[in-house]
Amino acid sequence: MTAETPLPVQVVDTMEHLDGRHPGYRRAHARGACFTATFTPTGEAAKYTTAAHLQGEPVSATVRFSNGSGNPAMPDTVPGGRGMATKFQLPDGTSTDLIGVNLPRFLVATPDEFLALVKALAADKDAGTGDQANLQGFLAQHPSSVPAFQALGAMGVPASFGTTGYQALHAFTWVNGDGDRQAVRYRWAPDLGEQNLDADAVAHSELQFLIDEFVERLGAGPVTFTLHVTLADPSDPTNDATQVWPADRPEIVVGTLAITGEVDDQDHWAAQIFDPTNLTPGIDLSDDPLPRLRNSAYSISYERRSRGE
Ligand code: HEM
């Protein structure tokens, strides 16, 4: 890796350095499982966006839940990011993706900052001293990253993939039939409520319990999430996922996702790609620079894992 190596390649190489290279697996959110679902929109979004899945008719969806680590052996009993990637199947045969994690805000605002962050974490790993001196140095230089790290540090261990909320974190732009544009942020709220395991339950859990727990839970009936969208004020930042918008911004209820069972073919679905830039007419990227980096990084990860690397 040299200074001329494109930034997204440097990012993925450094992620591999951090979590190890695990052939065939995603370079982040390595262990996961896919489920079938139906999304039923309320219709409340229709005046803001022409997106086909947000009008009135239900659509099929596939959901991949994951543990955030790039190491597929990472225990679920360790607090940390959990992911929910949803692919909506649209009536015209295309799809659109919505990807969330159980964090309230992101760690950095720009691609350069993300690279600096993963390099600092890698330097701490190489130093092996356990004092996280490089991360502390990064945070001293990037105070806007501190709140997300505090949130990460305060995380519990979710009792289920179905008992934690997931945020898409970036701003996206909705466009309606008149061409009006509205900046939004998405969040999935679990209808089961937020539930973490207590210390005793963590101590008595299997190390990788989340997928089995979810499959077993689905045996008793669908697990549902409600999709909420916050409507930004024009003064709210849309290019910085470290900043949350003021709590009094209006929210609308966009629809309900009912997750019904496991997909028939986990191997087929494990090989797919969920990409935050896979949008559909009626939804545009905002001026947040991170989704474009993610698009490149996810493609690099996809190419490597598709080759069995
Ligand atoms: C900007 C910096 C980021 C980078 C470089 C990055 C990188 C990656 C990579 C390389 C993968 C594996 C992709 C694949 O092989 O298919 C991945 C997966 C994932 N990332 Fe990110 N990510 C970033 C930010 C985020 C953010 C902000 C979120 C939360 C909204 C997020 C949530 C996820 C999830 C849920 C997955 C698993 C998707 C799936 O199940 O297929 N990432 N990320």
UniProtKB/TrEMBL annotation:
Q: Which catalytic residues are annotated?
A: 29
Say if the entry is tagged with keyword Zinc: no
EC number(s) for this protein?
Answer: 1.11.1.-
Q: Does the keyword DNA-binding apply?
A: no
- Where is the Catalase core domain positioned along the sequence? 2-309
What is a single Pfam family found in this protein's UniProt entry? Catalase
A molecular-function term among this protein's GO annotations: catalase activity
Q: Which GO terms describe its cellular component?
A: cytoplasm
**Cofactors demanded by this protein:** heme
Tell me which domain of life the UniProt entry assigns to the organism this sequence originates from: Bacteria
Enumerate the Gene Ontology biological process terms. Answer: hydrogen peroxide catabolic process; response to hydrogen peroxide
* UniProt KW keywords: Heme, Iron, Metal-binding, Oxidoreductase, Peroxidase
Q: Which residues bind heme?
A: 298
Explain the purpose of this protein. Has an organic peroxide-dependent peroxidase activity.
Sequence similarity: Belongs to the catalase family.
Protein name as catalogued = Catalase-related peroxidase
- Origin species, per record, is Kutzneria buriramensis
